[in-house]
Structures are given as structure tokens and as C-alpha cells.
Amino acid sequence: MEKIGKILFTKEDIEKRIKELGEEISLDYKDKDLILACVLKGAVYFTVDLTRNIKIPFILDFISILSYGLSKNNQGIVRITKDLDINILGKDVLIIEDIVDTGLTLSYLIRNLQTRNPRSIKVCTLLDCPGRRIIDIEVDYKGFEIPNYYVIGYGLDYKEKYRNLPYIAILEEF
Amino acid sequence: MVKIRLITISRDFGTDIDEIINKISKKVYGEILDRKRIHEELALEGYDVQELENKEKELEKGVRDPNFIETYKEHVRRIVKKYIEKDSIIFLLGRGGQFLFKDENYSFHINVIAPLSYRIKFLTNKFLLSEEKALELIREKDFSREIFYNTVFLNSWKEPSLYHLIIDRSFFTAEEIEAIIEKVIERQESKIYTPEQLSLPQKPKFANKTEEEFAKILTFYQIRWEYEPRTFPLEWDNDGNVVESFTPDFYLPDFDLYIELTLQRPRVMGEKLKKIKKLKNLYPDIKIKLFYGKEYEKLLSKYGIKEIK
Fold first, then answer.
1. What's the ipTM?
2. Which of A101, A111, A134, A137 would you mutate first to test chain B, the one with the most B CBs within 10 A?
3. What is the CATH number for A90?
4. A134: helix, coil or strand?
5. Which whole number is the average pLDDT over A97-121?
């Protein structure tokens, strides 16, 4: 049975860092066609709070990708289960992730979005776990870097639980 | 053995394939059956086509009427078979042909796809639509097709196993697609080859189950991999014989990256770590990543793989 372990980042830590990220993004994307592509479901909490700290116009959209563990009865190949609703041709896309670890999902997503010819694609993640990285992917904006922990809270789940924790903690004994 | 008599074409909206099929059909004196043509046939048989069209629209909205679904399937089957009996090659556009004639050995099922950008470009050029409108139309059509097939055939029409051939329209010229389909028609018989006849690549002999699982994960994320493709000599004796070497488990050609995996604990990893250090010294340009012990277990458990030794 799993349990909530040490708190890595408190609600206040997260709020402070998101504010900084929002300011940075607002500056970098001034006068650009910013599209925030929130990767469901984990990044929802982060995205919502981030948007409150972005002071320039943007379009918010959502995308969802089938995860490996959930696909055992499917076709055995990653696919988009909920696509962006808007056309990103010639736009500046910022992918919003909750966590970047192996880079496998993100690598697929970037390859997929690139075929739609946006002007730019960058990545913003709340958590970066480079120790678990298989595919080297450049993260342009990161909230926090973490060691190889399984973490929960603030959108990150374990079997759909714990997303609503206001902090980020280590999941123990799972 | 039976000759191919029916080619079903399922295509994404905006893939610019119908003209090509038209051309092929004329060349081989075939017949094209699409929604309009089938309705014309049904009208000749005395059916109220307007009523059929209305009911088909309901199916596109997901309204499931089991009686009408069976009637719909029966109509399409009957009309297609009528044409097959006339000794023509039939090109059935849409209508669920890939489901209705799935197990018929005289049929060949093709799915034509294209990247979104291609479909938008095609629609904007052909119908002078704005990009936004074209995208809106594509979304709408994709959605209603998905609903239609799920309602009528309880399955997604995007399931690759339904097709003998999937063509990316953006990858081939019209002439190349014509040549491919003509080649299929030229075949004397519809024949399923055994894996031996096709000389399919053999599944690698993985050293352990976790490596096989790792390969499955890479395949899932559409990352090309090779298993143990290269052995790096590390030590030579005075006669020039290789006395020590190292073979990383995986190579990812698109990332020019080698990956070594092991569930061994760090304390028994000394030998392997020494080898990797030597490898890096001798071949400084080689990119290699090592996942081992607890870290590797965590990586596997992220993908739902546990307790594999």
C-alpha cells in the first residue's frame, strides 16, 4: 500500500515559482502568437495557475495522449486521445507538462505537433526529472528539478489519486 | 485461390484520393461504388432514398437503431455482390467495406491517410476555404465518421488490422499510388503469405524479460530501436585479438544513442561500470545511457511493469 512521503514543494513554493515562470513566459512571448498546449490530465492544475500569471494574450488548448500502461488492450502504439481543437500552423506553441522524466511521451508529442508546421514549439514543465531521461529533450521552462522520485500532488497522480494535494510529495512504498 | 475483385477504400476527409481511384477504375474497366451510387441502386429497387439518407445521418450522430443497421449492412453487401457478379473490379469508397467484407478472400482493404497539414492544404486549395474553416470541417467529418463506424460496426475504422494497406497520401505522388494499387489488381490471386515466405525479421533473443518489456515501451512510443547491434572491443592482447568487449543492449538510431539496462544492484555492478568507463574513454563520441538497479525498477514500474526478474 502506498503512502504520502516527504513533501518536496509546498503550496507556497509552487505559487512563487509559477509566478516567476509566468513572468518569464510573458516576456519571451511578447508580440508572439502564443498557444498553451496543456497535456491532460496531470498538467491541468499547473496550467491553470500558470495562465493566471501570464500577462500577455494567449490561446489555451488541451491535448491528451494514451499512456503505455493504459494501452495493453489497445493497438500497442501511442496515439492522441484528445487532440488540440485549434490550428497551430504558424503559431508559437508552448507545451505545458506536469513532469518530464523519460521524455518518451514528450518526444512523440513534439514529433506529432511538428508535422503541423507551427512557428515554434517549446516545453514548459513544472517538474523535471533528468535522471530518468531516455530521450534527451530540451526543457525551456522548468519549475523544479527533482531526483528519481515518484511524486504526487498538484495534478500528479498515483492511480488517479492524490491529484488534489496542494503540495508535491514523494510517494512511498508503492 | 480467388482473384481480387473488390477493393475497399477508407480515406480521411481531405486526402485527395477519389480522383486517383477514378483514374484506376477507368483503366481496369472497374466500377466505383460510393454513397451516391448505392443510393441510386436502392432507388431503382424502389427504396425511399430520402428516408435512408435521414437514417444514415442519425447513425452519424450515434443514434443506434439495430434494425436499420442490419438493413444498411445488407443493402451494401447485396449491391456490391451484384456488381461483383458482373465480373467487374469494384472500388467501394467508404460505406464500411473494410468491415462488411473483412473476411472475403476476394477483397483488398486500403486506408488512405494524410497529415493534418496536408489535408488542410488540399481543402484550402481545392475549395478555396480558409485554413480555419478547413480545419473545422476536418474535425467535424473525422468526428462524425468515428461515431458512424462505432455505431454501426462497434469498432474504430482506424484499427490498422482492418487493412491490407495503409497509404500516407502526402508521401506518394498520384502516379505512385496508381502503380501500387494496379500492382495489387495485377496479382493473379488473393493470397496470404506465411511469415516464413515473407522473410519477416526474427524477434530478437532478449537476455531477459525486462529488456523485452523495454523494447515494447520504445515501440509503443514509435521510437526505432535495434537490439545489441554493435559490440565494442575494449581490450586486445599482444597478437591483436580482442580479449574484452562490451555490447550495449539497445541502440536508438534516431537519437544515435546506446542504452544499457540491468536490474543488478550497484554493489555487483563494478565490472559493468568499469566496462562502460573504458567504452567512454575509447569511444568518446558514443552516447550511452545506463539504467540499473532501483532506478531501472522505478523506470519499469512507471510503465506498470513490476516484479520481473
1. 0.88
2. A134
3. 3.40.50.2020
4. coil
5. 93
Number of domains observed in the structure of chain B = 2
> From CA B6, how far away is CA B49, in angstroms rounded?
25
Domain count, chain A: 1
Probe site for chain A from B220, B249, B300 (most A CB atoms < 10 A): B220
Amino acid letter at B27? K
Burial A81-111 (b: 16+ CB within 10 A, else e): eebbebbbbebbbbbbbbbbbbbbbbbbbbe
Size of interface A-B (CB pairs under 8 A): 70
Half-sphere exposure (Cβ direction) of B289: Cα atoms closer than 13 Å: 18
B298 and A150: CB-CB below 8 Å? yes
Q: Is residue B56 part of a domain?
A: yes
Distance CA A126, CA B270 (A): 35
* Whether B84 and B216 share a structural domain: no
pLDDT digits (tens, 9 = 90+) for B275-290: 999 999 999 999 999 9
* Predicted model pTM: 0.60
Tell me the per-residue pLDDT of B63-115, one tens digit each, with 9 for 90 and over: 888 888 898 899 999 999 888 888 778 999 999 999 999 888 888 999 999 99
